[in-house]
Amino acid sequence: MNTFLDYLTVLAVATLLLAPSLYGALQDRRIDRLLRAAAGDGRRAGREEPGRGRSARPGSSPTGRPVRALGLTD
């Protein structure tokens, strides 16, 4: 029984030591995936799609009507 508890203790300590680093590694992979996706969007940003560009004036909607007329401001 003592041998089983010794193994269980070693396993618990190893889990407590490894858990934060494994969590950090998973978070780094998620961030890398997001950065790769953002870099891919940046390459396509040079080619404007119709209707998806920025509006000509600040305060206007993509349809050209003032945002205030659409009731989208406070």
State the gist of this model.
This protein has 74 residues and is mostly helical.
Strand content: under 5%
**Overall pLDDT level:** 77
Which parts are unreliable, with pLDDT below 50 for 5 consecutive residues or more? none
The helix tally amounts to 2
Order of SSEs: HH
Beta-strand segment tally: 0
Distance between the termini: 70 Å
* Major β-sheet profile: none
Principal-axes geometry comes out as: rod-shaped
Structural class: mainly alpha
Helix content: 55-70%
Which value, in Å, is the CA radius of gyration? 27 Å
Notable features of this structure?
single chain, rod-shaped, 2 helices, 74 residues
Could you please describe the fold and organization of this structure?
It is a single chain. The protein is an all-alpha fold. It contains 2 helices and no strands. It has helices spanning 2-44, 67-70.
Layout of secondary structure:
Blueprint: H1 2-44, H2 67-70
